[in-house]
């Protein structure tokens, strides 16, 4: 008599075979799908070609935008100063120069901080201020400070260029001196005092002024501050 396997056992074996096949397929193809997804997340670096492109890259666009912002900042800076400080006047109708063939404030805008001083060589107060001017010229000239002496005589005999030149030599003045015998620059600044100091920033605005002696430490701090400001503007 032939022995037969019971029907329930055959059904169980078939079920196990089907489940095993499904698990195998899911494992095999599911892993492949996972690997493909990972490749999309971390793509391999794209090789760079040597062919030039005519389209501006993001760096070029960023630089252009930065330049536009700098111009806007400059315009805003000037507008703010216009509302807060008076503009410096130019040196007008000079009758001569010492230590230079010619000098103006306008030609130094953007590059120099200008310290303009009105003086006359017989003024005792001017003589007391002079060592500080010489010191500032020596210490800060290389940093961008331009000291300009405007000699406006009080007495008629002080108009003699040779006498002023000798006084400049004796005082050890090495910065430019402008002769203002006709009071043109003196009047442009509406000045009434000897000595008088006007500190002009690199944008051409009067940022500090002092009449008479004293305030040397304060004046020097203002010089240092405006030199720093100039350097920041030039670095943009």
Short description:
The protein has 236 residues and is of the alpha/beta class. It has helices at residues 7-41, 58-84, 124-140, 161-171, 184-188, 216-235; strands spanning 96-98, 113-119, 145-151, 177-179, 196-200, 206-211. The relative contact order is 0.13.
Element layout with pairings:
Elements: H1 7-41, H2 58-84, E1 96-98, E2 113-119, H3 124-140, E3 145-151, H4 161-171, E4 177-179, H5 184-188, E5 196-200, E6 206-211, H6 216-235
Parallel strand pairs: 2-3, 3-4
Antiparallel strand pairs: 1-4, 2-5, 5-6
Task: Give the key terms.
elongated, alpha/beta, disordered N terminus, 6 strands, 236 residues, Glutaredoxin, 6-stranded mixed beta sheet
- The strand order across the widest sheet is 1-4-3-2-5-6
Secondary structure: helix percent: 40-55%
> What string, H for helix and E for strand, traces the elements in order?
HHEEHEHEHEEH
Number of strands: 6
The total count of helices amounts to: 6
Helix/sheet category: alpha/beta
The coarse silhouette is elongated
Which fold name is given in CATH as the topology of the domain at 96-235? Glutaredoxin
Separation, N- and C-terminal Cα atoms: 106 Å
Largest sheet, strands/sense/barrel: 6 strands, mixed
The radius of gyration over CA amounts to 40 Å
CATH architecture of the domain at 96-235: 3-Layer(aba) Sandwich
User: Which regions are unreliable across 5 or more consecutive residues at pLDDT < 50?
Assistant: 1-5, 27-54
Mean pLDDT comes to 82
CATH superfamily of the domain at 96-235: Glutaredoxin
Q: Give the percentage of residues in beta strands.
A: 5-15%
Output the CATH class name of the domain at 96-235.
Alpha Beta
């Amino acid at each position: 008599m032939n022995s037969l396997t019971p029907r329930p056992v055959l059904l169980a074996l078939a079920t196990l075979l089907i489940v095993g096949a499904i698990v195998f397929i899911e494992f095999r193809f599911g892993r492949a799908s996972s690997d493909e997804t990972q490749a999309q997340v971390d793509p391999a670096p794209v090789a760079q070609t040597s062919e030039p492109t005519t389209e501006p890259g993001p760096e070029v666009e960023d630089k252009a935008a930065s330049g536009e912002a700098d111009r806007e900042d400059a315009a805003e800076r000037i507008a703010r100063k216009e509302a807060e400080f008076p503009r410096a006047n130019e040196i007008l109708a000079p009758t001569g120069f010492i230590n230079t063939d010619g000098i103006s404030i306008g030609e130094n805008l953007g590059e120099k901080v200008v310290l303009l001083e009105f003086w006359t060589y017989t003024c005792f107060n001017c003589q007391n201020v002079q060592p500080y001017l010489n010191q500032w010229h020596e210490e800060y000239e290389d940093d961008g400070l331009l000291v300009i002496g405007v000699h406006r005589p009080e007495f008629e005999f002080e108009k003699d260029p040779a006498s002023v030149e000798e006084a400049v030599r004796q005082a050890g003045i090495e910065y430019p001196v402008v002769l203002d015998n006709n009071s043109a620059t003196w009047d442009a600044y509406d000045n009434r005092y000897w000595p008088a100091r006007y500190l002009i920033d690199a944008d051409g605005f009067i940022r500090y002024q002092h009449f008479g002696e004293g305030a040397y430490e304060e004046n020097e701090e203002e010089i240092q501050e405006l030199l720093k400001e100039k350097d920041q503007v030039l670095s943009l």
